[in-house]
Amino acid sequence: MDAPLKRWLCLGCGFSYDESLGLPEHGLAPGTRWADIPDDWVCPDCGTPKNQFEMVEMGYAEAGVDQARIA
Amino acid sequence: MPKSFVLRAGERGHDVIYSDGSASSYVAGHPGSHITRESSFNFHQYQGGRPGFGTVRVFGDEVFSGAGCGYNMHPHHNFIICAFVLEGELTHINTAGQGMVDQLRQGDYYVFSAGSGGKHCELSISPENMNAIYLWLMPGQLFLPPSYHRAHFDIRTRRNRIAQLVGDADGALPVSQDLRVSRLVTDRAGGFTYTPRTPEHGVYVFVAEGSATVNEVALGRRDSLGISGVETLAIEAADSSDIFFVETAMLDDARIRAWEKAHGADLLD
Ligand SMILES: [Zn+2]
């Protein structure tokens, strides 16, 4: 069985990467696993390196997931 | 089981970021202006210490030096960012809600929940130094509606008792996290007791001024203690002390657990 899709938070600014949403405008299709993102990838908002993101088990606030799609 | 660590003032991460050169788009101010940042936990360039404590990811003791010094407008999401001004004046431009320009002086503090996205700019406009404590907290949920609240801690009328600034007490600023920030300012030596919500909560005690003994650990100016698994904290504070208490739920955080395991028992009593 596939591992559940996860969410990651940038420790430099709070930007969140959601594997289920990807970042289509940055070339990461929905469903792209964190492990499959190159190691030299940086936060699109603040430039923090990939290894300074933290995996978070956190849900979205009401309406948050729709805003995350367009963030 | 009680667990604790002591972090001396000089053991914190130390970064100086200048307004000219490579960081000029990040840091505002006249040439030579600079931000001095003492980090209790890993943050940006400093990655040599603890990754955090409970919900706390950043505890920064920052000084903005030089006219116009500070952080240019920059974006945030999700983090709950608090600032407590110790000296000088902080001009804060924030887009949360309708947006505002706020000016904070000694005793003033804010809670900015970046949630679904916000931008802010923080400046010390005058040539006088500005010193603030910055606290970044993990939120309870992603993409909360952004919010900004501010308040004043009156050092003259709230002396010699532990007063809650952020949390669920009357008059405290609300926060969407299992967290409380309290402050004790003394003008005479005295004994105090701090009781966390449960023994499972952790308390990060930071001595901004003066000195104190906390559960028999002696702390000087800008020293700190993180402790969890205790019913109460017994504090013997010296005259003219200023002490912060950050009480937080202790998350089962893989990053922090891995760091503690790698660093063994020497930093955990
Ligand atoms: Zn970032």
TrEMBL record, chain A:
Pathway assigned to this chain's UniProt record: Hydrocarbon metabolism; alkane degradation
Cofactor(s) named in the record: Fe(3+)
Cited SUPFAM superfamilies: Rubredoxin-like (SSF57802)
One Gene Ontology MF term: iron ion binding
Domain Rubredoxin-like: residue ranges: 5-56
Record CDD domains: rubredoxin
Chain ranges passing through the membrane: none
Family: Belongs to the rubredoxin family.
Function: Involved in the hydrocarbon hydroxylating system, which transfers electrons from NADH to rubredoxin reductase and then through rubredoxin to alkane 1 monooxygenase.
Protein's UniProt name: Rubredoxin
Native source organism of the sequence: Xanthobacter tagetidis
Automatic annotation (TrEMBL), chain B:
Pfam families noted in UniProt: Pirin, Pirin_C_2
Pirin N-terminal domain segment(s): 38-137
Protein's organism: Xanthobacter tagetidis
Residue span, Quercetin 2,3-dioxygenase C-terminal cupin domain: 169-247
Superkingdom to which the source organism belongs: Bacteria
Membership in a protein family: Belongs to the pirin family.
The protein's name in its UniProt record: Pirin
